[in-house]
Design brief:
Elements lengths: L3 E11 L1 H16 L6 E7 L3 E4 L5 H4 L2 H6 L3 E4 L7 E3 L2 E9 L9 H18 L4 E3 L5 H8 L15 E3 L2 E2 L1 E8 L2 E9 L4 H6 L6 H11 L6 H4 L6 H15 L2 E5 L4 H15 L2 H4 L3
Parallel strand pairs: 1-2, 1-12, 3-4
Antiparallel strand pairs: 2-6, 3-5, 6-11, 7-8, 8-9, 10-11
Helix pairs in contact: 1-10, 4-9
Length: about 280
Amino acid sequence: MNKEVWRFIDTGNSSPSFNMALDEALLDWHSEGKFPPVIRFYGWNPATLSVGYFQKVEKEIDMDAVKAHGLGFVRRPTGGRGVLHEHELTYSVIVSEEHPEMPKSVTEAYRVISEGILKGFHHLGLEAYFAVPKTAEERDALKNPRSAVCFDAPSWYELVVEGRKVAGSAQTRQKGVILQHGSILLDLDEDKLFSLFKYSNERVKERMQKAFKDKAVAINAISTKRITLEEAKVAFNKGFAEGLNIELEPYQLADEELEYVQKLAKERYESDEWNFKR
């Protein structure tokens, strides 16, 4: 039986505004029937702090530290918490809510899409598995996160190795389309990450950073051999094809598509009104 063909786009390193604008544009194009389902890999130039759609920047983010580190800054169209995009492979998946393989519930759709990431980790020789919060306390922690840092706790069906989170994802559904994007950590500068958020005092920050070490880990901290970005791309490309039982066809954006994305990037994702609105 022939497998369904999805598009695969690798846009390499781009600005924070371009990255978010392209994810939004792909969602729009898919909703309009102009684009089949798509998987995209990307990186960030400069390294960037992204915040979730509902986060309050003034309350949670130390913008002076963001600037001091020379980082980009952008608000995502998806929920979730703050992510430092630096040494990672970032992915996005755009597919219709009505796709026959997509469950109706957000949580179950996460599991289906994340099957591709799970298989990618296995291709890298890492024994990843899905996190399922078991206790009432763990489930409550998902509803009321104590920290503004994304990798501070595994959510339903997020990817874990040796009990620690190795990938963080967020999802939105708009115009009948699912957009899920996320970070697969290759390396992590914890000191830099924790310097970007506001805390009630230094002791709280230290306590959170110490606890964080038990909750999140980057691939190269646990892999027996150093994994490069290119090796990760190969593994996760294969992983998505297997996990979603699809064929991936490489695609280059046309000039008019790029122009549309650049216009959206400028008008929305570079505007203070969008990035600081909450």
